[in-house]
Amino acid sequence: MKLNKKIIILIVILIVFFIILAIPIPMKKTTTLKYKDFVFETEIRDTNSGRKTGLTNYESLDKSQAMLFEFKEENEYGFWMKNMKFPIDMIWLDEDFKITDIKNNIQPCESEPCPIYIGIGKYVLEIYADLSNELNMIVGDSIDKQ
Predict the structure, then answer these.
(1) CATH number assigned to the domain covering 26-145
(2) CA angle, 65 as apex, 93 and 76 as ends, to 5°?
(3) Is residue 133 within 8 Å of residue 87, measured between CB atoms?
(4) For 47-90, how does the pLDDT look when each residue is reduced to its tens digit (9 = 90+)?
(5) Would you kindly state where each structural domain of the chain is located, as residue ranges?
(6) CB under 8 Å to 84, separation ≥6 — which residues?
(7) How far, in whole angstroms, is CA 6 from its chain's centroid?
(8) Is the peptide bond before 108 cis (omega within 30 degrees of 0)?
């Protein structure tokens, strides 16, 4: 009788294990972007929930890291720095990845109401604070998607 219980428990554990393996784990969408000779390893946020969360769960951002917010169409989009832990640059891009606006060294919001930073584009690229100045990015420049 004890052997049958052990076999049943083992079968249940194996079934649970295989069910867990069958559940798809969402993978982060990533791409590589390049501005002149500088390469960004970029996480893509193209859903409402992904865009809402953005970088808020990050403790910091390396110079070579970036986050790209992708929208269905080019339009005016606003971002704020509520619950952010570090400053960033925001770069709005049109559908051809041409820079349409740059906001430099935006600081985290420490008290409400938080300012909203607005630009026009289909994409918004968030990068290490003041890196756009360091790289001499200007409106009209293009970023290459690898």
Answers:
(1) 2.60.120.1140
(2) 25
(3) no
(4) 988 898 889 888 999 999 999 999 999 999 999 999 899 999 99
(5) 26-145
(6) 55, 56, 108, 109
(7) 47
(8) no
What is the reported pTM?
Answer: 0.81
Query: Helix/strand/coil (H, E, C) string of 1-65?
Result: CHHHHHHHHHHHHHHHHHHHHHCCCCCCCEEEEEECCEEEEEEEECCHHHHHHCCCCCCCCCCCE
Side chain identity, residue 8: I
| Token duo for residue 94 | 């049109």
Give which of 69, 62, 75, 107 is closest to 88, Cα–Cα. 107
Do 114 and 70 meet the contact criterion of CB atoms below 8 Å apart? no
Tokens in use for 22?
């069958």
Q: Which helix (H) or strand (E) holds 124?
A: strand 117-128
